[in-house]
């Protein structure tokens, strides 16, 4: 029933280079938490997961458009009907706007009910001469700048499972699929279960691999290659044609439409030059792929106030570039991947939010999110491009 039945499948990532894993200080506690997760209730079913693969398959053929969005990092103490409901309403409104323009169904996928692990550029953070481990998401440690909070605690993986289950109760009636970055391999492999169609990571419907962990020979790609879920990979401007073709071959060897999505996050300045060779090579290689545009992560800047922010104008510019590249290649863009919230935050600059407003309601535990109005602005802009 559980992992121990076929360790060769679920543990094949062990021993390969695994970037961005926390240094768990207590191996005994790690073993116990993983044992708890190995018999925990699955969060999603294989049937739901297969249904999403089929919907993404339609997107791969240009017969559907994908909207994936939610927090950069979810927080345990934000699992409330108001906050989760706000995200779901925002996603639904955006989907309605896009669907009216696209003339095809919009597949809604939340960065939700499990988006608790964060890759970090620096392993440590220094404030006033004090250096502590970086915050790696609520599933690993606490955001508070104290030695106690920042010490990785494996029991947080159990709390993440509970928080995901509570969030899912709110998400299911809205018909939104769930997704998160498959970063923490102990968590993901402990929640993987054997079903008729293969091994399913039951932590979410779709799992993606981040820009920092997409080494084709690394542990994350190996793990993702073994699960039956739809998977995605983020691609930044340094991704080479060779790497991308290798990822396509490793992650979709049977060429199943909907199994693999690539999420381009090139930056508004780079997308028009960096993306076309990749799109052309993948099309020539014959592996079906859904191309999504993440116009957030290549456009992060630091405001004079010190806040990490993004300009909505640059976000729109990358979306425009992404559409242009696909049109020039004779392909339909597959969808959008956004960091957003339903809350009235001041984290990105644009619309009613100026750079001076950033300190007012900057609540993100990690990257800056579009607020509700800004999210709708991006959806309306995308709708305009879909109509052209
Ligand atoms: C993210 O999606 O929050 C993220 C860290 O993205 P990337 O891996 O593209 O940098
Ligand atoms: Mn982010």
TrEMBL record:
One Pfam family linked to the record: DAHP_synth_2
GO terms for MF: 3-deoxy-7-phosphoheptulonate synthase activity
Record InterPro entries: Aldolase_TIM, DAHP_synth_2
Domain of life: Bacteria
Reaction catalyzed: D-erythrose 4-phosphate + phosphoenolpyruvate + H2O = 7-phospho-2-dehydro-3-deoxy-D-arabino-heptonate + phosphate
Keywords on record: Amino-acid biosynthesis, Aromatic amino acid biosynthesis, Transferase
This enzyme's EC code(s): 2.5.1.54
Pathway info: Metabolic intermediate biosynthesis; chorismate biosynthesis; chorismate from D-erythrose 4-phosphate and phosphoenolpyruvate: step 1/7
Family (UniProt): Belongs to the class-II DAHP synthase family.
Entry-linked PANTHER family: PHOSPHO-2-DEHYDRO-3-DEOXYHEPTONATE ALDOLASE, PHOSPHO-2-DEHYDRO-3-DEOXYHEPTONATE ALDOLASE 1, 2
Protein name: Phospho-2-dehydro-3-deoxyheptonate aldolase
Lineage: Bacteria, Bacillati, Actinomycetota, Actinomycetes, Pseudonocardiales
């Amino acid at each position: 029933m559980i992992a121990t039945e076929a360790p060769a499948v679920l543990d094949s990532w062990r021993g390969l280079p695994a970037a961005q894993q926390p240094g768990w200080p207590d191996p005994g506690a790690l073993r116990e938490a993983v044992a708890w997760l190995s018999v925990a209730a699955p969060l999603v079913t294989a049937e739901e997961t297969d249904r999403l693969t089929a919907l993404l398959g339609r997107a791969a053929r240009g017969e559907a458009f994908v909207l994936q969005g939610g927090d950069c990092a979810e927080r345990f103490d934000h699992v409330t009907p108001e906050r989760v409901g706000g995200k779901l309403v925002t996603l639904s409104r955006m989907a309605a706007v896009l669907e009216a323009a696209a003339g095809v169904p919009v597949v809604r996928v939340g960065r939700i009910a499990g988006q608790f692990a964060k890759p970090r550029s620096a392993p440590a953070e220094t404030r006033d001469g004090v250096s502590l481990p970086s915050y790696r998401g609520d599933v690993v440690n606490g955001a508070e700048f104290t030695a106690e909070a920042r010490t990785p605690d494996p029991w947080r993986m159990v709390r993440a499972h509970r928080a995901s289950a509570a969030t899912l109760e709110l998400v299911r009636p809205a018909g939104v699929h769930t997704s998160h970055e498959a970063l923490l391999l102990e968590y993901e492999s402990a929640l993987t279960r054997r079903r008729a169609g293969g091994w399913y990571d039951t932590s979410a419907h779709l799992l993606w691999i981040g820009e920092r962990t997409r080494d084709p020979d690394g542990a994350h790609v190996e793990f993702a290659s073994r699960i039956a879920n739809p998977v995605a990979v983020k691609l930044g401007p340094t991704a080479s044609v060779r790497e991308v073709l290798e990822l396509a071959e490793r992650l979709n060897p049977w060429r199943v439409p909907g199994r693999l999505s690539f999420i381009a996050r090139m930056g508004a300045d780079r997308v028009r030059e960096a993306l076309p060779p990749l799109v052309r090579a993948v099309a020539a290689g014959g592996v079906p792929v859904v191309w999504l545009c993440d116009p957030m992560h290549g456009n992060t800047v630091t405001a004079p106030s010190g806040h990490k922010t993004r300009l909505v104008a640059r976000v729109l510019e990358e979306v425009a570039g992404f559409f242009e590249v696909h049109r020039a290649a004779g392909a339909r863009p597959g969808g959008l991947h956004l960091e957003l919230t339903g809350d009235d935050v001041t984290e990105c600059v644009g619309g009613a939010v100026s750079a001076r407003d950033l300190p007012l309601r900057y609540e993100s535990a990690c990257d800056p999110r579009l607020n509700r109005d800004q999210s709708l602005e991006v959806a309306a802009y995308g709708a305009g491009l879909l109509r052209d």
